[in-house]
């Protein structure tokens, strides 16, 4: 059995899990999420914990048990605590401004870039060169962060661009004469 699937998902107080034959729904203080259930995995609820077990000994069932356990674990921690991703803007004149559900980026183009946030994702700009993305769906938070970074990814010679706060950019040496 998968090492990840062996660990049970503990449900914190205030999180409800509803299991149907084709769907797992998790509801908490920050929101609610749904996930399609696999026919290769048996999910059981024991009080305040969820356990995942593959139906048979096939490689696909084993892999799917670990995958489903991790996805449900992310859903549980998302609706109870939430996720956040921090981006930094490095460059002269680069700045960001949050306006409701939109993010306005000025990153060296002739026009500002406006990115619309989906429902459930909030964007904040603590300083003009920092962007903080918050939400309860881990996949959605990561996807929006990747889309914002793709507007102007960090370049390898000066390091200018949009990068994750914990990202290390290796600076290349310039050409010698």
Written overview of the protein:
With about 180 residues, the protein is of the alpha+beta class. The protein folds into 2 domains: about 5-80, Ribosomal protein L6 (Outer Surface Protein A, domain 3, Alpha-Beta Complex), CATH 3.90.930.12; about 85-165, Ribosomal protein L6 (Outer Surface Protein A, domain 3). The protein is about 25% helix and about 35% strand. The protein has 3 helices and 13 strands. It has helices spanning about 5, 60-80, 140-150; strands spanning about 10, 15-20, 25, 30-35, 40-45, 50-55, 85-90, 95-100, 100-105, 115, 120-125, 130-135, 160-165. The protein has a 4-stranded antiparallel sheet with strand order 11-12-7-13, covered by helices on one side. The radius of gyration is 21 Å and the shape is elongated. The chain starts with a helix and ends in a 13-residue tail after the last strand. The mean pLDDT is about 95.
CATH architectural group of the largest domain: Alpha-Beta Complex
CATH superfamily of the largest domain: Ribosomal protein L6
Low-confidence region ranges: none
Q: What's the number of domains?
A: 2
Q: What is the average per-residue confidence, as pLDDT, rounded to a whole number?
A: 94
Short description:
The chain is α+β, with helices and mostly antiparallel strands.
Notable traits:
Outer Surface Protein A, domain 3, alpha+beta, four-stranded antiparallel β-sheet, three-stranded antiparallel β-sheet, 2 domains, 3 helices, 177 residues, elongated
